[in-house]
Amino acid sequence: MEIGKLLISIGFVILIIGLVLSYFKEAIQWFGNLPGDFKWEGNHTKIYIPLMSMLLLSILLNLIYYIFKHLKH
User: Fold this and answer.
1) Distance CA 51, CA 60 (A)
2) Number of domains the chain is built from
3) Cβ neighbours of 68 (radius 10 Å)
4) Burial letters for 13-29: b for 16+ Cβ neighbours within 10 Å, e otherwise?
5) What is the pTM of this model?
6) Which residue range is the domain that position 14 belongs to?
7) Which is nearest to 34 in space by CA: 17, 20, 19, 54?
8) Which pLDDT tens digit goes with each residue over 17-27?
9) Coil, strand, or helix at residue 29?
10) Cα(32)–Cα(49) distance, rounded to whole angstroms?
């Protein structure tokens, strides 16, 4: 039964992310272009390291996890 609740929660989060990306694409264009995101373009290569964006995403996902964990108790 626990795995079912977990899968429903994950599906709900993915649904919300999908809706935000579909309908508010212009509002989140800053994601991936933060000051800590490194971009380098050479003649034949492009390197993109989104450090700050991934840090922000990690904090957001940890916050969501924290909220779900404490709602369960």
Assistant:
1) 14
2) 2
3) 15
4) eeeeeeeeeeeeeeeee
5) 0.59
6) 1-28
7) 54
8) 888 878 877 77
9) coil
10) 9
Residue owning tokens 């508010």: 24
Report phi then psi at 12, rounded to 5.
-65, -45
Residues 73 and 39 in one domain: yes
Query: Residue 49: beta bridge partners?
Result: 38
Of 30 and 16, the one with more pLDDT: 16
Other Cβ atoms closer than 10 A to 54: 14
**Burial (0-12, 13-18, 19+ Cβ within 10 Å), 31:** middle
Can you read off the two tokens belonging to residue 54?
A: 């991934």
Distances (CA, A) of 17 to 13, 28, 31: 6, 11, 13
Average pLDDT, integer, range 36-61: 91
Same domain for 10 and 39, yes or no, is: no
